[in-house]
Amino acid sequence: MIEWLAETWRNIGVPALEWLVETWFKFGLPALEWLAGNWLKIAVPVLVFIATYVIGLWLRRILSNAFDRWQLRTKWEGSRLVIAAVRRPFLSWFLLLGISIAVQISALPAEAKMITVKAAGSLFVLSLGWTVIVLSERLLRIYLPRIKASRPTIALVISAVRITFIIIGALIVLDIWGIPTTPLLLLIVVVVLGAALVLRNAAPDLFAGFQIGATQQIKEGDYIKLETGEEGYVVEMNWNNTRIKTLGESFTVVPNSRLLQRTVINYGRPLKKAKEPFHFYSRTHITELTGLKARNLQELVDTLKKVPDAVVYYHTHRFLEQHHYLTPEPSNDFAVWISDALGDEILGERLASVDTFQFPDLGALRSRLVGIIEEYLTAHRDTKGATPAETLYFMKSVREAMAGEEFYFMKSVSVILPTTYVVSDLREFVETLRRISLGSLYFHIFESRLRLGKGLNDFSVWIRDTLEETGLAEEIGRLDPYTYTLEGLRLALIQLIEKRIK
After folding, report:
1. pTM for the model
2. Which of 261, 307, 326, 435 supports an S-S bond with 311, CB 3.0-4.6 Å?
3. pLDDT score recorded for residue 232
């Protein structure tokens, strides 16, 4: 083993040691002699670099504390964004500054100095530009929503700021390296013109979208109506078009330029949503013969007590259904028959004066009609000691109608049909109210109240129970629908609801 080690040392160790000694005398001693004579040329740049870095640390702390104090005084939330955006690259900037200064005072050749300084300057411009872009974007995302800028507007402004700083940074870097910027500017102009030609058809919509977003005339969530008839909630706005969700749950896409060229009614932001949507129904009716008839008052009142509510409904509301365009106080068939067929105008007027609206259901209405007739019969049965006029009045009370003029009891059979209209707030409700048929309006106002025994019309019940708009529900409930035509009633309802919406 010892012999092997000795042999290895002679073959490898001794030649290596000789090479090290020779290299030291050839390169080491001259380098050491040069360093001894030029150490200041190396030490000074290094010290300047270190000093610049230390100054950067000191300035970063000073500026951070100053921003904190300023924020406490002004409560400006942007100061935190500034500190967060600048803190990390701040030392990098001072490192680049230190490198530039150290290179300038070093003994490097002029060409090396120039390349190093240009590279450091380019890195500084790129870093500063990126920091400005990030900070600008964060500040814009905070303050643009506060001036009610739309999301498309915010996106466009941020993109424009980003592109602007990128172009400025690129031009500065090119200028640092002495590269002509005129060709780049010409290229930018050509690209812009080319984009304008390609987007010439879309340009009106783009500019219109920018104007709409900047002026905030229409915003997402607004309910709008175009003069051409399209209406609904704005669910999405971009730079080309606006999507509208109609009452029928479909979507309409409207070019932005059209929104500016047409008259648009903006009803504003969404209203309170109902707990349950309102489904509109319509109705039609079939008239059915009952086979019952009356020749005099006694037969009339006896039969009236037994017939179903559908008969009472038919004979008290037929006038309103068939002549909905007239506005006199509606009569009922019983009053008309007694006045015309029996010639008793006094009793006919008493029956005609019954206010149908004050009764919560058909049973109460029937009881009132029966009560008036029975009271009349009871008062005129005894003719002892009566005057001739009273006797004549009694004769009318027992008079029978001529053949063919008997009172025929009819029955109204309703067929209720669902419609496609379903609404969830007052704005949808009032717009749908303009569209529904008179049959649908009649069903929800009259039929639901009397025939279904709700006591109130469907509209008041829904507004009160699902929207909790008690005041509006009471106002609608106080409307006397019998004093309006159906179109007049529709208009009155619309006016009440629009007043509440506004």
Report:
1. 0.46
2. 307
3. 78
Neighbours of 381 (CB within 10 A): 10
Cβ-Cβ contacts under 8 Å for 289 (sequence gap 6 or more): 408, 410, 411
Closest residue by Cα to residue 114 from 128, 96, 100: 100
Cβ atoms of residues 313 and 362 within 8 Å: yes
* 366-419 confidence digits (pLDDT tens): 899 999 988 888 876 654 445 555 555 555 556 788 888 999 999 988 788 888
466: three-class secondary structure by DSSP: coil
**What 3-state DSSP class applies to 228?**
coil
Question: What is the number of other CB atoms lying within 10 angstroms of the CB of residue 248?
Answer: 11
Tokens 């042999």 -> residue: 7
Q: Is 223 exposed, middle or buried (0-12, 13-18, 19+ CB in 10 A)?
A: buried
Tell me the HSE value of 297 on the side-chain side, using a 13 A CA sphere. 27
80 vs 61: CA distance, rounded Å: 14
Sequential DSSP letters for 229-283: S-EEEEEEE-SSEEEEE-TTS-EEEEEHHHHHHS-EEE--S--PPPSSPEEEEEE
Between CA 469 and CA 477 the distance in angstroms is 12
pLDDT tens-digit series, residues 430-460:
889 988 988 888 888 877 776 556 667 889 8
Using an 8 Å Cβ cutoff, are 451 and 403 in contact? Answer: no
Any idea which fold 218-266 has? SH3 type barrels. (2.30.30)
CB 362 within 8 A of CB 447: no
